[in-house]
Amino acid sequence: MHTVVTIQFTQEQARALTGVSVETIRHWRKTIPYLASKSGKSSRFTFADLVGLAVTNTLVTSLGIHISSLSGGVDALFKLLGTMGSSSLDDNIILVTATDASFYKLGADQINMLSSPALMVPLAPLVANIQRQVLPIPPISHQLELPFPPIAIKGRA
Length: 157
What we know:
- This protein is an alpha+beta fold.
- The chain has helices spanning about 10-20, 20-30, 35, 45-65, 70-85, 125-135; strands at about 10, 45, 90-95, 100-105, 120.
- It is elongated and about 80 Å long.
- It starts with 8 loop residues before the first strand and ends in a 23-residue tail after the last helix.
């Protein structure tokens, strides 16, 4: 039986795709246990790891949250993303608390049952941005079809 091999990204590729700097990754490795296991130049990141880095980067840069105050929740985020298939990430939102992370479908009524403050990040734009960089879509050709089909003409033999 063949095992499914996933694409692995180098640390440099992960940084380029998520917009996270070298210094930031170093700092996050000291704070987030999941990232501490991915140390050294030979470390590899999965697509789920890239989404986790993008979510973490969004929390830190857009909301001004210190990573040390969310280290437990971000660690749980990376572990949770590892259990999800990449195709199921598009239509979800992620809720990150100080100690945990959870997925919800957009429009889910489950959000009303939250018992502690949480930060919400929609995954669709982050996933789409990473996918667009990894698998660029070629531009659509706007050439019109010919009004008559080409016909092969036999030349002189």
